[in-house]
Specification:
- 10% of the residues lie in helices and 29% in strands.
- It is mainly beta.
């Protein structure tokens, strides 16, 4: 019996995805990607250089640092709500403010808690910077993986946390 083999097809689709990002179509956006450095432990030091043994962060949380930004390309894709049932009377398909923004990002190796920034027009002349935090990533395709969908929520930047104004 011959096994099911998607390897060559997935490689071709992944190559097509790279061509898609390089096409500079109107739905491809330029982004800055700040990769979260999740493998470095937090140093909690008080004024005067004294180490805070209790810590300033809640249990299960820690401060993050970020690599310098890299330029990449991305495409916003529709959020596909899985079939959900609720018992509290809420509509599972309600697209309120807690609906994540989903993106395909050309750059590889985007860890959880990384930050994506892009610019968008809010009026005919005014542009604003949008910052989003990656909360979950899902690969698609198998053997090999074709790409990754990144689920993001708004990121409120503290002064200088990403190393720029």
């Amino acid at each position: 019996m011959n096994p099911l083999d998607f390897r060559q097809t997935n490689i071709q689709i992944a190559d097509d995805l790279d061509v898609f990002f390089d096409s500079d179509g109107e739905d491809i956006i330029d982004i800055l990607l700040f990769r979260a450095r999740i493998d470095y432990p937090e140093d909690v030091v008080l004024d005067g250089g004294v180490v805070d043994v209790v810590g300033s962060i809640e249990e299960g949380e820690r401060a993050l640092t970020y690599d310098d930004p890299v330029q990449s390309k991305a495409k916003v894709i529709p959020f596909e709500t899985p079939f959900l049932s609720t018992f509290d009377g809420e509509d599972p398909l309600d697209t309120s403010n807690d609906t994540p923004i989903v993106m395909l990002i050309k750059a590889q190796d985007v860890p959880k808690y990384s930050v994506v920034q892009y610019q968008e027009f809010v009026s005919s002349t005014e542009v604003r910077r949008v910052s989003l935090c990656v909360m979950k990533s899902e690969t698609f395709g198998r053997s090999p993986v074709i790409g990754t969908k990144h689920y993001m929520i708004p990121f409120i930047e503290d002064e200088g946390i990403l190393g720029h104004e």
